[in-house]
Amino acid sequence: MSTETQAMDAATLSRYDDLGKLVLRLALGLMLLLHGIAKLVGGIGFVTGALQKMGLPEAIGYLVYVGEVIAPLFVVFGLWTRLGALIIAGNMIVAVLLVHTAQFFALNATGGWELELQGMFFFAAVALVLLGAGRYSIGGRAGRWN
Question: Using H for helix, E for strand and C for coil, what is the string for 50-119?
Fold first, then answer.
């Protein structure tokens, strides 16, 4: 294989990698953003209630807007993607600790993990922390947090 062919193959692979990152960013960001929009519309009373039961200040509950609205927007647009994804991963850990600990080792009626959704959000976010946004983003490939 010639050097020119190898360079073209590397460029094609790079485009596919960047498209894959775009798909991952959009899937994670948009699906989690829907949860954030629901909380904007319906409120976060259940979050603040869960915090209160654990003896924590209710005000911490407002951070759910950072984890489910602001961070997903960062991820979708590809601006500070790694930071947004890191916030999402942390948000998922807090969500599991607050309201899903009883389901951690449970399976649902069809044999799936009870925490599939939270797990997919978490691991997709971790993947984006490691991969970054790619070229199809506002921030482009440059930048430590992108």
Answer: HHHHCCCCHHHHHHHHHHHHHHHHHHHHCCCHHHHHHHHHHHHHHHHHHHHHHHCCCECCCCCECCHHHH
